[in-house]
Amino acid sequence: MTPLQDLVVVTFAGSMAGAYCAKMFADGGAQVSIVGESALGPHQQDYLYAHCQMAQLHDIDFAAVDVVIESAAPDPLVPAALAHPHLVRVQMSPFGVRGDHAHWKGTDLTDYAASGHAYLYGDPQREPLRGPPEQPAVAAGLYGFVGAMAALLARDRLGTGQTVEIAHVQVMAALHQVTLLRWFMTGDVFCRMGNRYTGQGQPNGPYRCRNGWLSITAVTHQQVESLLGVTGLLDLLDLPEINSVMDFQQHPALLDDPLCDWLSTRTVDEVVELFQAMRIPTAPLLDPGELLHDPQLIDRSFFEPLTGDPATFIPGKPFRTSHQQPAGDSGWRPGPIEEGPLAGLQVLDLARVWAGPLCGRILRDLGAQVVWVEAPWHRGPKEIPQSMLDATRYFPDDDPGEHQWNRNTHFVKYALGKQSLALDLQTPAGQDVLARLVPGSHVLLENFSSRVMPQLGFDEARLHELNPDLIYLTMPGYGRSGPAEHWLAYGSSVDSHAGLSSLIGYPDQTPWKGGVAWPDPIAGLHAASAVLGQLWSSLSSGTGGVTIEAAQFESTVAAIGDQVLASQRKDRYGAQGNRDCRFVAQGVYPCRGDDEWIAISVIDGTGFASISAMFDLDPALAEDHDRFDQALSIITARHVASDLAVQLQQAGIAASKVAKSPDIASDSHLRSRSAWGTIDQPEIGEFTTLVTPIALSATPVRPLAAAPTMGEHNEHVLRAAGFDQSDIVALAAERVIATEPPD
């Protein structure tokens, strides 16, 4: 049984976002029909619509349809006239159908630029880079699917459908990793930092070995020290500039140069095997075509033949299910609709870092009660070194305060509205507590490596024995089988392994590291999608508990499936800098001021005629991209980027300033879409962040609520699970539960 088998979906052929949303429905077993002539390229269409069917508008009985997907890009979306109140309508476009810039055109380049992501990609001495192609649309499509499933789950209680509205730019702004935290907390403008360090940790990026490339992501003291030891570079710690291994972030060449020399004499497989044995996240850097031969994906039978062409392969589903249980009596019963589509859903969130916590945050914002089960040491030690403060910039005014564990805004961001149970699961008493929590929960999510939960005594069989109706979501980096099952995986190493880094770079310098750990949000969004699909199945078909395995690696490969298909057709995309072979011209150009840039996409001949007339350019430049870029750069350098973007959009040309942190914070379009929320956060004060970027017309996402201090809800959660006061006192005395890190 597939979770969405009873749903009927119609998608009006539009953009990549709409097609990816449709693919998610088709992957879940829904009957998906495509109406109209697709504007997608052949590889995109063949991959994303592989399990859909073509239909004529006059053959559609909208009275029998559940979901209608509408999308557009680069043009704004003009919603269809449909008078069927039961429908859930999903509307997606670059700037959305409402807001100050709803009439603007957009491409993936301008999506990256307007949202601030482009400013994080590339060399600080060169123009910012476009990220992996079409990923803003993929993320928008995933949010559209999540919103649609939430609307379907709300429909019976509402008695009507509703509209789900998504803007690519708002989605991308919401998916920053640290950019906006650093701005709001310290006034630091996070900038692209080259092909090595784009965040915490050093080494962090792609490196060349004797026979190819790999990616290394060492972000902890232990990982860097292990790397120095295994490579014979421990003497670097004696350099006068280095007081802590974290100081290599400020002086990357001191480590990079000798490390590159060491790597140059060794093979990729040799280094990956050695570093992974030392628990240093390392993976081969592959292009989309090489993924077809990756041992992990082959072992897990990830690829499937393209319908009608058995010699060509496409990625399979981004997550898989197992251990399906027969229906029981303790499944989710939705609560009052005014509390959200997922009201009454009880979630145990054991996840860490970004991907899993993002999934939990989405479920909370849609109405679930989420208990964050965190290790007492998860937020770090009681005292943190100055080098950590300098590296992260997560703390208000760079001040960790008396309780740094409650002031780290990276934890706060993804814990907003959750409850905290600080529980030591490495103790028998802590495991007993979890065993008593599982029967009263509907969802348990974690993103540990595959060995952790079985070692704790909670494999899927035990969890489903405790609760036959439990939706158990596990998010190991590489899955629960295969030669890479136990590899340590971070998003910034997975992005290279999954093919993204090969799609980024300047024409004369590739591959290139991503500006954020993109596999994290992609995995988190796919995981949230999987949970919502299973909730629908439980309510509509009476299915019981299930295990969902959402491997970050496979989710990321699924997001570039069209590139995998293109590689087999000898039409590989490759890194083209900021250009796009589909358009007449495209690039990022300098503007007036310090490190100010504008992204411009000239879609077709009409757009080129407009920009040529505006700036008195020679029409022959359409045939010479280098000369066009040179001529346009001279002109744009005299203009203010934001003003020039307005002028170009008025002329029908997709354009946007390459936004920095303060630009995003003051962006009138985001504000006109009510994209921000502010709460009074304990031990921090005013905390402002972007809300979950799903606009539901009848059941809006819940307002932001403060994140918990460590262990704030220990007593509340335990009492609800049947523990009495003496039990709770004993657990605290034994440090099984805590409100601060251990000494």
How does this structure look, described?
The strands form 6 sheets. The chain has a 7-stranded mixed β-sheet. The model has no long low-confidence stretch (mean pLDDT 93). Helices cover 35% and strands 15% of the residues. The longest helix has 24 residues, at 135-158. Strand 19 and strand 20 (597-602) form a beta hairpin. With 743 residues, the protein is of the alpha/beta class. Helix 4 packs parallel to helix 19 (519-541). It is globular and about 80 Å long. It is built from 28 helices and 24 strands.
Please write out the topology.
Elements: E1 8-12, H1 16-27, E2 31-35, H2 42-48, E3 53-55, E4 67-71, E5 88-93, H3 108-114, H4 135-158, E6 163-167, H5 168-174, H6 179-186, E7 204-208, E8 213-217, H7 221-230, H8 252-263, H9 268-277, E9 282-284, H10 288-291, H11 295-299, E10 303-306, E11 309-315, E12 320-322, E13 346-349, H12 355-365, E14 369-374, H13 386-392, H14 409-415, E15 419-422, H15 428-437, E16 443-446, H16 452-456, H17 460-466, E17 471-474, H18 491-497, H19 519-541, E18 546-549, H20 552-558, H21 561-568, E19 585-590, E20 597-602, H22 605-615, H23 625-636, H24 641-650, E21 654-657, H25 661-665, H26 668-672, E22 676-681, E23 685-690, E24 695-696, H27 714-720, H28 725-733
Parallel strand pairs: 1-2, 1-4, 2-3, 4-5, 5-6, 13-14, 13-16, 14-15, 16-17, 17-18
Antiparallel strand pairs: 6-24, 7-8, 8-9, 10-11, 12-18, 19-20, 20-21, 22-23
Helix pairs in contact: 1-4, 2-21, 3-5, 4-5, 4-19, 12-19, 19-20
